[in-house]
Structures are given as structure tokens and as C-alpha cells.
């Protein structure tokens, strides 16, 4: 069985957050959603659990950080092309997110942009030509002097 990832995010307005991620092209899984949580599906193996603050507090006694003013995690999704990276960022901005809170990264073989959701959670979106990346990052033989 493939390993799955469930990213748990505290949100202040569950309906707004659910609509935001659906506008990005993710889908809601009703089997794992209720008035306190929405399961957002990005792929067969990547899910985000949007949790009201009361629900999130059931899993931790730590203070819930305000992602608008502090950072705890950077989440990264891959896309199949540079154009798909740009399209996801454009959808995020159109749905009420903030486009490019971090610098655009363009290394030729890798391209990345980012967005913040309405609660300030920072998401990276990247495309990479894996063969070109491996070539660019391969150790080089040193030439004796």
C-alpha cells in the first residue's frame, strides 16, 4: 500500500478554507468531513485536514500559531509543468490567497512559486525536470592541479 500524507491545518473559517482549496482544484472527501473538519484531497496520496481550532486542540495542548505572523512549516506540492505552477498560484490568488509571499525560484531545471491560504499557511508549488536536476547536482570529478 502506498504511504499517505495528511497535513493537519487549523483554520478560523472552515467553509471559507474549504472553498479556497476547492478553487485550487482539490476535492472535498465527505467521508472524512463534518462541521469541525474537511478532508481536502490533492491526489491519491496527499490530503489536507482543515480543522476548526476546537477540533485542532483535540490533538495538541500547544498554542495554535497565527500563520500570518509566524512560520512553523512550509508545505510543497509538485506540478507537472511550469505552466501548472503558475496556474495554481493564479487560482490561489483569485480565491482569496496571497500569491508569492516568498521569492519566485527559477533554476532552469526547477521552478517554484508560493501562496498563502486565507489563514496564512505557506504553500510552495514547484516543477522540476528530474533528469536535468540530477545532472546539475551531480558531483563533479576534480581535476588535479
UniProtKB/TrEMBL annotation:
One of its GO terms (molecular function) is lyase activity. This is Lactoylglutathione lyase. PROSITE patterns: VOC. It comes from the Bacteria. Gene3D superfamilies: 2,3-Dihydroxybiphenyl 1,2-Dioxygenase, domain 1 (3.10.180.10). Transmembrane segments: none annotated. It comes from Sphingomonas parva. Keywords: Lyase. Residues 3-128 form the VOC domain.
Amino acid at each position: 500500500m502506498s504511504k499517505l500524507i495528511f497535513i493537519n491545518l487549523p483554520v478560523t473559517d472552515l467553509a471559507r478554507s474549504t472553498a479556497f482549496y476547492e478553487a485550487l482544484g482539490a476535492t472535498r472527501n465527505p467521508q472524512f468531513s463534518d462541521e469541525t473538519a474537511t478532508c481536502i484531497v490533492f491526489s491519491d496520496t496527499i490530503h489536507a485536514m482543515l480543522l476548526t481550532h476546537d477540533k485542532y486542540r483535540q490533538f495538541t495542548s500547544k498554542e495554535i500559531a497565527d500563520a500570518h505572523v509566524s512560520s512553523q512549516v512550509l508545505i510543497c506540492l509538485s506540478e507537472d509543468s511550469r505552466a501548472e505552477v503558475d496556474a495554481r498560484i493564479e487560482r490561489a490568488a483569485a480565491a482569496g490567497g496571497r500569491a508569492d509571499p516568498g521569492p519566485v525560484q527559477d533554476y532552469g531545471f526547477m521552478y517554484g512559486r508560493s501562496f498563502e491560504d486565507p489563514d496564512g499557511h505557506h504553500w510552495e508549488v514547484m516543477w522540476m525536470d528530474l533528469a536535468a536536476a540530477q545532472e546539475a547536482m551531480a558531483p563533479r570529478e576534480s581535476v588535479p592541479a
